[in-house]
Amino acid sequence: MPVIRTLSKVAKQVLLGTPGCGCQPLTVAARNVSFSPRQVTSDASFHSVSFSETDHPKVLITGGLGQLGVGLAKMLRKRFGKNNVILSDIRKPPSSVFHSGPFIYSDILDYKNLREIVVNNRITWLVHYSALLSAVGEANVALARSVNITGLHNILDIAAEHGLRLFVPSTIGAFGPTSPRNPTPDLCVQRPRTIYGVSKVHAELMGEYYHHRYGLDFRCLRYPGIISADSMPGGGTTDYAVQIFHDAIKSSKFQCNLRADTRLPMMYIDDCLRATLEVMEAPVDTLSMRTYNINAMSFNPEELALELQKQMPELEVTYDVDHVRQAIADSWPMNFDDSNARKDWGWKHDYDLPELVQTMLDIFAAESRMARSH
Ligand SMILES: NC(=O)C1=CN([C@@H]2O[C@H](COP(=O)(O)OP(=O)(O)OC[C@H]3O[C@@H](n4cnc5c(N)ncnc54)[C@H](O)[C@@H]3O)[C@@H](O)[C@H]2O)C=CC1
Ligand SMILES: CC(=O)[C@H](N)C(=O)O
């Protein structure tokens, strides 16, 4: 149901006395009144599960089979217990993932199915990872619009109706050519030129609106490009920084699709996932905002190649620029100002460029030793 139409109905459906969000004390008068953003049955409050009723949060991760979801599930399962974290996606999970903990099919465009999963599993935290990334989004704007915008509306409504704590990642891609690029602060002009960026600005604003309007416990981090060894990126502009490791190990040759001097903010996956857990666990009074930049390092392809060549002098890097990706990268931040995250909830990264490269190479070396021993 379109959100605007729903909201006008909602304005008439004030459910006095039903807490808007079971997770947090409400801080402004408007939030003491709960609105249901969709038309819901009169017993809908029955489904609201207060976080304090459970020992651990019960977490659902959407789009969980992408670059980030499996690692997040592993980390959250260690902390909250295997059965308290459900991975979901529309793709078929590899058997290692299927056997490592609960997995469920969920298409975020299917509102009823999502609601059923949340209710039947008494979900209290929702981590919304489903999305089409920047380069893939430009290749399929209609699908990106549907998944990244319509899908988000479903997620917001379900999270608000069921009193969930909701995490939605945003990205350096939520900024554009008219934003300050070096560094980019939390609050500045945001006029991205990709459907991905537009959908992420929309997500930031809608999440913050639902927070102020309905008391939704919305939390959002703008991730830099994420680098991981055991999961492949899903069609972004920063993918080169993962691909270079695979190609370096396989053939000692790498053809980069961005110019050598294209500087972008980047982060190792362990820092990204830890930041996600930290902001989800942050006491509400430490959050002066609901959307934060986080950062770790900033480099260009030439600098990454030089760091790799310290350990692999035989690595040859050539450049064959993809004009779509280059135009996107040229409109994105070069450096990210994450001082608010550091000040408010103590964000601190562990990995700079040398540690990142060493860690990635160590993981690949361990994998190849294991493969040889089998
Ligand atoms: N990987 C990165 O460098 C960054 C990622 N992010 C954000 O983090 C989140 C996760 O990113 P990745 O794991 O890298 O993305 P990915 O592209 O690797 O995975 C996205 C997943 O969403 C799933 N999906 C697509 N349509 C769906 C639908 N209708 N219903 C349910 N699932 C659907 C896909 O099957 C895929 O497994 C995304 O929202 C992305 O925007 C933000 C900044 C950087
Ligand atoms: C930075 C991102 O959001 C993503 N990796 C992309 O390049 O699209």
Automatic annotation (TrEMBL):
The gene is TDH_2. Transmembrane segments: none annotated. It catalyses: L-threonine + NAD(+) = (2S)-2-amino-3-oxobutanoate + NADH + H(+). Its EC number is 1.1.1.103. SUPFAM superfamilies: NAD(P)-binding Rossmann-fold domains. InterPro entries: Epimerase_deHydtase, NAD(P)-bd_dom_sf, NAD(P)_epim/dehydratase. The lineage of its organism: Eukaryota, Metazoa, Chordata, Craniata, Vertebrata. It holds the Pfam family Epimerase. One of its GO terms (molecular function) is L-threonine 3-dehydrogenase activity. Residues 59-294 form the NAD-dependent epimerase/dehydratase domain. Catalyzes the NAD(+)-dependent oxidation of L-threonine to 2-amino-3-ketobutyrate, mediating L-threonine catabolism. GO terms for biological process: L-threonine catabolic process. It comes from the Eukaryota. Belongs to the NAD(P)-dependent epimerase/dehydratase family. This is L-threonine 3-dehydrogenase, mitochondrial. It comes from Liparis tanakae (Tanaka's snailfish). Pathway: Amino-acid degradation; L-threonine degradation via oxydo-reductase pathway; glycine from L-threonine: step 1/2.
